[in-house]
Amino acid sequence: MRILGIDPGSRATGYGILEKEGNRLRHIDNGAIFTRSGDEIPQRLETIHSHLCRIIDQYRPQAMAVEQIFLSKNALSALKLGHARGAAILAGVNVGLAVHEYTAMQVKSAVAGYGRADKRQVQEMVRILMNLPEIAQEDASDALAVAICHAHSCGLNNRLESALARQR
Amino acid sequence: MRILGIDPGSRATGYGILEKEGNRLRHIDNGAIFTRSGDEIPQRLETIHSHLCRIIDQYRPQAMAVEQIFLSKNALSALKLGHARGAAILAGVNVGLAVHEYTAMQVKSAVAGYGRADKRQVQEMVRILMNLPEIAQEDASDALAVAICHAHSCGLNNRLESALARQR
Q: Mind telling me how many Å the CA of B95 is from chain A's nearest CA?
């Protein structure tokens, strides 16, 4: 299964694509979409959305994963993040992708085995798990982290379903 | 010129379409898109976006107007509003519509002639200006208000440009 992880942001939206083959994960691509600082909101959303649509079209993921946001510094930054997140999620929903949300703690637990791991530890674990020569750009790394989280989560769900099926 | 006004919200997104013919405004349609309370964010965004795409396809507006948001009760509600606003704006941007933003004070001034007019006064003025038999649903009324604001604003710009052209 191919998973697209997204770390949306008004200035930079990270994306990461990985392939889950049985219990193994394989890195496919990662990167960040930068919006132009002079652009108004509509243009920024168009940049994020159209770029993600092209990535989805190129890599044909079967699922999309995005971090769930609970808190933000302030209402204005939350509003800006919401715009970007809406544009990113729509790129997936519009082509029928299931969109899964995970909390920051779920992502950190899945990647670093510890829900309170620091940013650098998570980035290093993403690098190791994805077999990258160096740490990815930070938004791209966060996007890969949430994709890894989804891969683990659906792996667990599949094993749970198989175990339950065997019991029946 | 046909203008689509939008009042985005996570639960209800109002829309209003009017036709500006010279200095006259003519009401075309208004309504509200309600998302289902049990739905997750991706489904809500899909509802808002796809419904607006259909409305744009049906009425073919030449411009879109949306209220600019500066403050919100808290970060979480700002995030939710941002999602809905992003989905709504994208419906316009994706078909090449110019999206214009106006502050609440600009909208109130344009509709009621007074930037601190209260909600009920604005609704009643929208009803009168649009020649409606009764006050529209509140989100739809707010959407018509921002469309009226854009109609006035581009009317002013046109007159300014004509005046400047005559001076040359």
A: 10
